[in-house]
Amino acid sequence: MDNGPSLVDYKSELKIIGGMISRNGPIIEVGLTALEGQFVFEETGEPYVGLYHKHQDGTLMIGKGNLGTIHKVIPSEVIIPVDGIF
Fold first, then answer.
1. This model's pTM is above 0.90
2. CA dihedral 44, 42, 83, 64 (to 10 degrees)
3. Nearest to residue 73, comparing CAs of 32, 16, 22?
4. Between these two residues, 10 and 47, which has the higher pLDDT value?
5. Neighbour tally for 2: CB within 10 Å
C-alpha cells in the first residue's frame, strides 16, 4: 500500500526563502504566454492573459520569471489551466 511521500521526502524538497518555507522549488520555465481562455487566477477564477512562469512542482505564476529563481508563492499570483490540460 502506498501512503504517499514520507516526511523525509517532504523535508528534502523544502527551501527557506526570506525566512519562509517553500516547496515550489526553482523556476524551470520562463517567458510563457497565457492566451485568452487558457488560464484563470486560482483564488478568484478571473481570466488571465499574459506572461507566466512555471516552478519545479508545477505551480504556475504570473509574470515572466527568472530561470532558476526560488521565491515565495504569492497566492494571488497563482494561475491554473481552465481545462486542466497544461
1. no
2. 110
3. 22
4. 47
5. 4
Residue partners of 47: CB distance under 8 A and separation at least 6: 36, 37, 39, 40
Q: What are phi and psi of 19, to 5 degrees?
A: 80, 0
CA distance 54 to 81: 12
Report the pLDDT value the prediction gives residue 24, as an integer from 0 to 100. 79
Cβ(10)–Cβ(23) under 8 Å? yes
Cell of 40: 484563470
> Per DSSP, what are the bridge partners of residue 27?
55
pLDDT, one tens digit per residue, over 20-79 is 445 678 999 999 999 999 999 999 999 999 999 999 999 999 999 999 999 989 999 999
User: C-alpha grid cell for residue 11?
Assistant: 523535508
